[in-house]
């Protein structure tokens, strides 16, 4: 594992050895294609900022920050809507789904 801070003359070129491409269970690692794209961009680009999109894709693959943020936003909105339904005296979407005749039939069959 080689990690280098950007240098004014060399940019990110020292980071190219960072990823081996091997997954935990053999085969190619899940983020290797993003790393490969980022490292190829760095190797051929004069300006490291030109590879910002590839770097962002690689880091999203590693850490899933945008995905988690979006899921949290969806959950918060669902909770907000359920709270509004509760204040109006309506049932939540989960209760509505659980009471659906098709779901009750599946639950009784699985018992």
Secondary-structure blueprint:
Blueprint: H1 32-44, H2 52-63, H3 65-88, H4 93-99, H5 101-110
Helix pairs in contact: 1-2
**Strand fraction band?**
under 5%
Q: Give the terminus-to-terminus CA distance.
A: 52 Å
Please tally the β strands and state the result: 0
The arrangement of helices and strands along the chain is HHHHH
What integer is the average pLDDT?
79
Main beta-sheet annotation:
none
Radius of gyration: 24 Å
- Which spans have pLDDT < 50 for at least 5 consecutive residues? 1-18
Report the helical percentage.
Answer: 55-70%
Q: What class do helices, strands and sheet pairing give?
A: mainly alpha
Question: Judging from the principal axes of the Cα atoms, what is the shape?
Answer: elongated
**What's the total helix number?**
5
Q: Notable features of this structure?
A:
single chain; 111 residues; mainly alpha; 0% strand
């Amino acid at each position: 594992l080689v990690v280098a801070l950007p240098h004014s003359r060399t940019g990110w070129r020292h980071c190219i050895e960072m990823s081996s491409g091997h997954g935990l269970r053999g085969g190619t690692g899940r983020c290797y294609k993003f790393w490969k794209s980022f490292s190829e961009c760095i190797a051929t680009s004069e300006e490291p900022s030109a590879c910002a999109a590839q770097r962002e894709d690689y880091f999203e693959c590693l850490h899933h920050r945008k995905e988690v943020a979006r899921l949290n936003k969806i959950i918060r909105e669902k909770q907000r809507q359920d709270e509004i339904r509760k204040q109006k005296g309506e049932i939540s979407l989960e209760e509505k789904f659980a009471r659906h005749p098709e779901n009750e039939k599946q639950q009784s069959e699985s018992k």
